[in-house]
Amino acid sequence: MKKINVGKKILSENEKYAFENILFLAEQKKLCLNMISSPGSGKTTILTRTISELKNKIKIGVIEGDIQTDIDAERIRATEAPVVQINTNGACHLSAAQISAALKKLPVEDLNLIFIENVGNLVCPSAFELGENGKIVVLSVAEGDDKPAKYPAIFAKSKVLLVNKIDLLSGGQVDFDIERVKVDARRLNKGIEIFPISAKTGEGMADWYDWLIKSVEKK
Ligand SMILES: Nc1nc2c(ncn2[C@@H]2O[C@H](COP(=O)(O)OP(=O)(O)OP(=O)(O)O)[C@@H](O)[C@H]2O)c(=O)[nH]1
Ligand SMILES: [Mg+2]
Questions:
Q1: CA 160 centroid distance within chain
Q2: How far apart are CA 159 and CA 182, in angstroms?
Q3: What is the CA radius of gyration of the chain?
Q4: Ligand 1 touching residue 40 (CB < 6 A)
Q5: pLDDT, tens digit, for every residue of 62-111?
Q6: What is the CATH number of domain 13-218?
Q7: Ligand 1 neighbour 45 (Cβ under 6 A)
Q8: Distance, CA 213 to ligand 1 centroid (Å)?
């Protein structure tokens, strides 16, 4: 059979919805950030602290992605931020179609910033564009300083790397060379912003907040 090259890329189902989301967010002039990490690195803790500490400056809404339960949505709801929970029922990442439906349930016009907390997984979510304006990767110190080298895709694609749980470093319970992480992440992604933080104690969070406020202002 003869193949004919029509010179056009046929968009995948996910890309179609991602494109729709890009257009919607651009029309609404809203910033949308997709937070990705391994399970338990601290995404929800970072979000609840960020929402509470910025509540007089930025109105934040959240789309929560989990395989099961609405535990994380409940934690966000306790801050009084609007939240939509998506259960993927087994899938290891969120899809752009799920984000499109969730955006329709959020009071987007009242918000400055929409966070997506993706399913806890350092690999699959990096392959699915959701139409977001940027990805935020979280790495906690207990996971090891070799992760940018071993799981490069998400570090290569993210605007920001939050190195979380730095409070665990002071007692020497964890061996973690933050300089190695910075060098490896910047080798993959020259422009990546790196903020060492503790969502538990609040250390380092001010620089992350400054970055967020500036990013919202640019929209
Ligand atoms: N010591 C310390 N513990 C933290 C910090 N941030 C989060 N934790 C703890 O880490 C655990 C996991 O935090 P979560 O915020 O639920 O992590 P997550 O990334 O949202 O987890 P999933 O949604 O399941 O992927 C909880 O016990 C938090 O209290 C931190 O900065 N320091
Ligand atoms: Mg969570």
A1: 9
A2: 14
A3: 18
A4: yes
A5: 999 999 999 999 999 999 999 999 999 999 999 999 999 999 999 999 99
A6: 3.40.50.300
A7: yes
A8: 23
